[in-house]
Amino acid sequence: MRVRPRRSRAAIAALTGVIARYGPDMARSRSFCLAMLALDHLIEGELERGAEIGTEAVDTAETLKSVRTKDRLRPLKLEADKHRDHADVRALADHITAFAVSSTHI
After folding, report:
1. C or N terminus of the chain, fewer CB within 10 Å?
2. pLDDT tens-digit profile of 24-40?
3. What ranges do the domains of the chain cover?
């Protein structure tokens, strides 16, 4: 996946709309979109919002038995690692690492 910072603002609007339409039966898709939305917020410098949404993405992924969840969180982890001086984003990066290590289905 390539990150295109110039498109992140448009992606935030689109992903926010999509996520709002997902019901409880769409947890995997919701988790994937939350991870992308969090990534876009981090790219835009909205670190608190990115950390909040990213944490929700990981929390949702923890309820799933999908082998793709770890892969979908990788770009978010890479971006979060760039902002380790921010406590919430550092906590997100650590949360993703803990999820990846403890995930028996991956």
Report:
1. N
2. 899 999 999 999 999 99
3. 5-102
